[in-house]
Give the backbone structure.
Amino acid sequence: MSSAVEPSPAGEQPGSNWRRVVAPADEISDGTRLALFVDLKLRTRTGQWGPSRLEPATAGGLLRRANDVAVGLRPAVRGAAAGSWIRGDVSWESLRRPGGPWSAVQARWFAELHSIAREVRTLATYSDLGEWLVLDTIESGLLWPHLASADDLGIPLVGTAADRRVMLARQTAAALRIERVEDGGLRLCADISIDGESFTGEAIRAVAASGLYGYRVIDGAPLLVLAPAHLDDVTRRLLTDGGSVHVPPAEAGEFLRDHAPLIARRLPVHAGAGVEVPPPRPPQLRVRVDARSVDRIVVACAWIYPGRPPRGFASVPDDPERDISFEAQVRAALATAWGAVTDVVPAAQAEFRDVEAAEFTTRLLPALREIEGVRVEVMGDAGRHRELSGDPRIRISTVDSTDPDWFDLGVQVTIDGRRIPFTPLFTALALRRSKMMLADGAYFSLRHPALDRLRDLIDEAVEMSEWETGPKISRYQLALWSDFEDLADESEAAVSWRAAVHTLQDVERVPETIVPDRVRATLRPYQKHGVSWLCFLADHRLGGILADDMGLGKTLQVLAALAARREGAGGRTALVIAPTSVIGTWQEESAAFVPDLRVAVVSSTGGLAAVGEADVVVTSYAVLRLDETAFAEREWGWLILDEAQFVKTPATRIHRAVAALRAEVRFALSGTPFENSLIELHALLSITSPGLFPSARRFRDEYVGPIEKGKVPDNVEGGAYRRARLEKLRRRVRPLMLRRTKAQVAADLPPRQEQVLHVELSDAHRAVYDIALQRERQKILGLLDDLDRNRFIVFRSLTLLRMLSLAPRLIDPEASGDSSKLDALVAQLEEVIAEGRRALVFSQFTSFLDLSELALGRAGIGFTRLDGSTADRSGVVSAFRAGETPVFLISLKAGGFGLNLTDADVVILLDPWWNPAAEAQAVDRAHRLGQTRPVMVYRLIASDTIEDKVRALQQRKARLFDAVLDDDDLFARSLDASDIRGLLET
């Protein structure tokens, strides 16, 4: 790239113009100098429609033709005479074109002035009149700074004649002068001071709203003064109208009273003789209320100043006519009254609906009328609203409905003699509203204690979606009905409902049912009471849970009740659903104790169609699940769910199949109506007593959370809140659940002793377990934040650790080392057999039973085995009962229920299970009615392993079960992530 410099023009050396570069701007003479002609003009017109033109004005012309006066502006150039300025050939147009002979800086100033003058054009402008711009119509605020900058650029402001002077002033002040005139009226004049000099109104004019100019003759020489000024509307209009106006005598009082005080807020007022300006009257806040609709009130607020149009509600500090201090006082008083009634903030416009509209007219409107400075204007009838303040009177009634499980519930509420429609009242209570308004404008508070209790009872009675056809209450909500009666001032119940309610208040008063002679068994007193309880509930179409301890004869009680009420169930057949392993027990006991009761067993799908006349049909949960449609098509008398824990999970198909069965009454038989959580208890009650706890969500919120998980602040063990929740649950369930423990009713049952045997792992066994523990702990702890998603993986790892606690070979068949627990089992059985006793040995793992078989074989100990794969279950049981072997190996799942093994008096539990109820069922195979010898229970626990943690979890769950069903110990928690972390602690 070349760096050569272009040659300079001939005769000029490079850089010779340096002085021009550094010289001050006012020393540069780069063209013809300019000046601004400023001259007072009169507008004239040739004929009515002729063109307008400007001609020079004189002082006399200014006074005679004030409305046609204007100041003209145009550029000028130097004349031939010394110091003179002439029009020459300069014009606005020529200055706006580039390349002229004029000073470039000055020409630009004139072009900008022309642009400012032409920024806003109106039909009344003079700016098109030839070569003159008209100062009077220039509205831009840029005019005055621009004129002030002319002196810096050497542009003088001159008149068109040598004797006419022009001056640009710096300061102005305006005032209003009020004078009394001869006719009794008033004369309003504009007093203007320009740079300390006073100008009368006749000799001064406004330049839009940004400035003014004045004209006077001093020592015979005319002087035109231009000045920037912020003119208020009054001053500007006065100057536009010639500087003064006349107020007639009849209107002088109004002006002085309403207008002069407001003008005085923003403009000095000079009162002449006989004129007195009063202080300004305060404004009023006009509150306009549109009350033409009963349930909608619209309020509009505006400030009213005398003689002025309405002002906005918001404060405007820069409005000189507004009394900001007084407005603030009124607004503060308004906010105080307003805030006592509603959360709506006072505003220019507000709307109130329903109860808020009623409270506005009854409470806020009277308060507004008392506020000084507030003027209330009402359109419509604001007096139709009234508050009902009396105590509610509640009347409860029930009527039999077409649904046998429900009564129609009538709730009548009366306040101050007004009957409140229940449907809108129910909606308002359910939505937790604080007030309610009726159609005629009457309203009342929903915060009364009686209505609070009614809301709680309605919430407990049923969910909103279940009341779409009207309020109802379930037949099974006995204690809840009592609460309704306690709440009501009067109640009227259906005859059958009232009989059930009053009788079931105390279960001990259930009328005795005579057990017929055809029942070939001698029932104990508690069993007779159980028969009476079952028959009593059935007579009132109420189901329930028979929750007697295992081994107390629940099957016999049901068979006796069926025999006593064989015709009492409308002639319909009873349906018994039981685990497959227990069906044989129903056959055996019915044949033994009630042989004339016709019992049919349905053991396969399609078998129901082949059942003829039968009093009782017995089937399994598995068959029902596969053939649910056939069972659901029939109407049954009694529905009996044996070992009802099979339907404890609502999400399962078997639960849904049982719930779909049509039966007059439903009974659940279970010594453990819940095993892991109270949700399982709710699942059973939803089948046997639908409506007792209508909502699973509410049950979780009100009972499961507080009792199991302690989701309440400061809810420690034994706390008042948890105790109250537990007591309420037990009170609700009590009429529909009958539970007797062995300790209560079977005093003749031999004692049972339990002993935990801690087994120390061998060194080789311990090494294998500890390695696996560290590996699985790291895996599990990383998954607990999302336990629901990772539950399978977590429990698989926990199961692996539980199996390693028993024997390494359960995980790795090639593992070396013996099982410490098998050694302890053999030693214990040798001692039992030596004493002439027989033992039941339980394990959850059939693979560990396999190892147990090998260990017993090596030790020469005879055994019998039962697990899920056993084909001849009855034969195996009979062989043990016959005394063929001293030891019965049983898997916990296969032997947990349906077995009567009182031939054994020792129970050994090889491994603990999460659920203590499952172990209790296993123990009760031996410790039950018919047992004549003391029963010894041994629990083998591998020390310092996960089995210790499982045992601790068992104890927590047992306390939950006891707290709800057996005693007042309220501590309980269900299995959650924190429990699993505890299992892995070392």
Q: What stands out?
A: The chain has six domains: 28-162, 172-271, 284-384, 387-504, 507-745, 752-983.
